[in-house]
Design goal:
GO terms for molecular function: electron transfer activity. By secondary structure, the chain is of the alpha+beta class. The protein has four helices and ten strands, in the order H-E-H-E-E-E-H-E-E-E-E-E-E-H.
Length: 234
């Protein structure tokens, strides 16, 4: 039974990787050829986010071009004598299996020196890259940003243009039948007192205690840990 669950888990992981993997056609419409701009392919790559499991699709004229995977030094100097891998058939589909930079060049003539070279930096989505967002995509706001009012006088405009006072100077309206402190001409509700002091019945309901929120989060974390442990046992 344990072996069955392990097999199912493995198949689910493989299926998830296949679903979320991206297939990139290198150079888009220009494909893999000698470009007019020396930085054409690296500019193309800078607008992409490459994750482990993605595929690079090199389409080229096999009589004039090829695809070689080389080291960083070979890439920098366009050395083509001893590539790590050389593909001469098109299309060439290369899966990105590891994180880090990968270097590609064309070994035909001086094509590499004329810009037919590409570097891609592969990242692991588990590190929080956030999927296949473009290189210039928006970054999610960091926790604790200035989107919520801070105690002590900061205000946040509402939809109608009014401002909501922060907790440092807020006045809580008194309940029906009670008189707010300091109101002129108001009748005190406490015998013998000139002004009405807030009583327990006139206080507004307190927010949910931090302990309750922490308990809820702790319960959720416990359930996640329990499920993870059960999966690990199988």
């Amino acid at each position: 039974m344990a072996g069955f669950f392990k097999t199912v888990t493995f198949m689910v992981l493989v299926f998830a990787a296949a679903v979320f993997a991206e297939d990139y056609e290198v150079g888009d419409d220009a494909k893999w050829a000698r470009p007019s701009d020396l930085e054409f392919y690296n500019t193309w790559a800078s607008k992409k986010t490459f994750l482990v499991g993605d595929v690079l699709d090199f389409e080229f004229d096999a009589e004039r071009h090829d695809v070689a995977i080389v080291t960083a030094d070979e890439y920098e100097n366009c050395e083509k004598e001893t590539p790590l891998s050389l593909i001469k058939t098109s299309p060439a589909k290369i899966m990105l299996n590891d994180t880090g930079p990968i270097y590609f060049i064309c070994t035909s003539a001086d094509h590499c020196r004329f810009g037919q070279k590409l570097t891609v930096n592969v990242v692991d989505d588990a590190s929080g890259a956030g999927g296949h967002s473009g290189g210039g995509g928006a970054t999610p706001p960091a926790p604790g940003g200035a989107t919520t009012p801070t105690p002590g006088g900061a205000t946040t405009p509402s939809s109608g243009g009014a401002t909501t006072p922060a907790s440092g100077g807020a006045t809580t309206p008194a309940p029906s039948g009670a008189t707010a402190p300091g109101s002129e001409g108001a009748s005190p509700t406490t015998p013998g007192a000139g002004t009405t002091a807030p009583t327990g019945s006139g206080e507004t309901a307190a927010p949910l205690p931090a302990e309750s929120t922490a308990s809820s989060l702790g319960g959720a974390s416990f359930m996640v840990a329990l499920v993870s442990a059960a999966v690990a046992l199988f």
